[in-house]
Structures are given as C-alpha cells and as structure tokens.
Amino acid sequence: MQATLRKLAGRVWWYPHDDDHDNIQGGVAVIADESGSTLVDAGNSPAAALRISAAIQAAGLPAPRRLVYTHHHWDHVWGACAWPDVEVIGHQSGARLLEAEARRPWSHRYLREQAAANPRLVPSFRARAWAMADWDGFAVVPPHTEFADTLTLRGGIEVHHVGGRHAEDSTVVAVPDSGVLLTGDCFYPPPHHLRQPGDTHDDQLIRSLLDEDTFGRFDWYVDSHHQPRTDRDLRDLLTTPSG
Q: Does the global pTM surpass 0.85?
C-alpha cells in the first residue's frame, strides 16, 4: 500500500485506507496537539502502526499520547502493541471483547484452523495472515481507559458511543474546532461472517450523525474504509430519503 499522511482540516491529519479491500486496512486519524497527539484507531498490525508512526514523524507532528478505538475489530486495534507509550481509550463493551481476544493463541496456524472450521471467516482471517509477517511481541491491547456514553479529551475532542449493527461498541470521535467527525465503521452493515442478504448501511445511524442537535455540524465525515465525505456525500448513502 502506498499511503501518505495528509492534513484534512484544522489539526486533523488522515492516513488513508488501503484501496485493496482484501487487505482490510482502515484509515487512521491523527489529531495534532502540542501536548501530545491523539490517534483514532491503531492500524491493522504492528507493521502498519510503524508506517504510520514514521509518517507522523516525517510530518513533524507531536508524538501520540492517546489512542481511541472506534471499535474492537482487529483491523482497528492490532497495531496498538506498536504504540507502547500511549493511553488506549475504548468503550466498555469493546473492552470485554478485547480481553477475550487477547487470550486467543494468535498465530498463522490458529488462523488456518479457525478459517477451516468456519469458511465465512476466510476473508478476515486471510487478511490477518497477510498483515502479520510474524508474531514476535504481538499482543491484543484492551483499553486502559474505558467509557460508557461520552468522554471529553484534552483539546475538546469528544468521544461518543453510538453502537449499531456493525459493532456494539462503535464509537465516533468529534473534533469540533476542525469540523471533522471520525465515524469508524459505525454505519456499515454487520461484518462479513455475520452479514445476511440485504444488509446495507444503517440509515438510522447515518441520520443521527447528520443531526446537528445530536453531534453538531461538520465539514467532513470520515469513515474508515472510504475517502472523507461531506454531509451531502453522506446523505447520498441513505437508501430511504428522509422527509
């Protein structure tokens, strides 16, 4: 993947997703702050995290001090062990799931065994194998700091639990002074191995993100596996127009 860290708006920088969907690498945000930047998601592997770290240094941004998980899925959290000096923040329901994930015997052999037992896991587990050249030093990192509904971080960064069908712990991160709402995968359909025919974007959740009385108004709505969208772009995803 050829990717570079670029400034999106204000103090929000964006390291984009991989256009090869088989690789399952979502975008990672960096919210710059002189006291220590905030990451939103960790990358899909320690190797990806190291590439992002090098890009942060090359851009001259302050080193990260906090890392917010948008949800517990592997492609958003497996890079966390390569960020050893950050405080990891996540929703309490995701914390319980990640504690269980941390106890699993992750290896290429384990991935093959699990995929053979449940063929619907093949796309995810194949991508995990591609992402992990080796397992030395790898660990799944549950949040150090948990929250239930909302949390306000230094610099006015707002963290909101929204849930949804993609992941019960889905979280969005608002940066009001930069006009950016980072939405993770929250309005996506369920993961591939749980998806049913007809499953599509969650219209109700999209409408809540666009509701100015709920979250405010933003210039950019940034989900993890797509180019940043304007509010009009996001409205275009609605399968049933409102009104």
A: yes
